[in-house]
Design brief:
The chain is an all-alpha fold. It has two domains: 33 residues, no CATH class; 161 residues. Helix content is 73%, strand content 0%. The protein has eight helices and no strands. Helix 3 packs antiparallel against helix 5, helix 5 packs antiparallel against helix 6 and helix 7 runs antiparallel to helix 8. The longest helix has 27 residues. It is elongated.
């Protein structure tokens, strides 16, 4: 568009077709792949996940002695998965209406379900909370990196946040485990901000 406003005639588009081709290409995205459809609902649901996730983590920690352990994080994972499944079922028609929203729903659901399976396996094999949450963060990083490649580029920030937790937990040990829910909330906040327009 800026090229069409160039002061020198030779710097502008040679034909009207050259000018309109990029705009036609941008408008060619069908409604099934339009990220603006359902954006407000996605923001509200992610905000609800942030609030409810924080509430479940607080309740679980207060009722189990305010410390992270494999049984504690399994309980929290079950509650988180229940919240996401409940919200998903409650708004399934709108969430699954377009291909873009179906991809987002899968991207949100996969790490949470993977966390639960990973945490149950860690509990069964005697892994400690630090190793378990580091594994969870790697799952989150891989999922968000794939989302950045196939859905939206801003998801790479979530992948970097997850890898940041891996580094923090590696260096500071169990004292840094409280950063895991903060990392997840930060990832959700990035999505809410990225979807701020309608």
């Amino acid at each position: 568009m800026l090229r069409a406003l160039a002061a020198e005639p030779e710097a502008r588009h040679a034909t009207m077709a050259d000018l309109t081709a990029p705009m036609e290409q941008a408008l060619a995205i069908g409604p099934d792949r339009d990220p603006s459809i359902g954006r407000a609902l996605r923001r509200r649901l992610l905000a609800a996940v942030i609030v409810l996730g924080g509430a479940t983590m607080t309740v679980v920690l207060l009722t189990t002695g305010s410390h992270f352990s494999p049984p504690v994080i399994v309980k929290q994972s079950v509650l988180s998965l229940a919240i996401v499944v409940g919200l998903g079922l409650g708004f399934r028609k709108k969430l699954l209406h377009t291909r873009y929203n179906r991809r987002i729903a899968a991207l949100v659901s996969f790490p949470i379900a993977a966390f639960l399976l990973h945490r149950v396996a860690a509990l069964a094999t005697g892994s400690d909370a630090r190793a378990t949450l580091i594994g969870d963060a790697i799952i989150q990083a891989v999922a968000m990196a794939l989302g950045a490649v196939f859905i939206e580029r801003w998801m790479m920030w979530d992948a970097l946040l997850a890898l940041g937790f891996v580094g923090i937990a590696w260096v500071f040990g169990d004292a840094a485990l409280v950063a895991f829910p903060l990392m997840l909330f930060a990832c959700a906040a990035v999505a809410v901000i990225s979807w701020r327009g309608e």
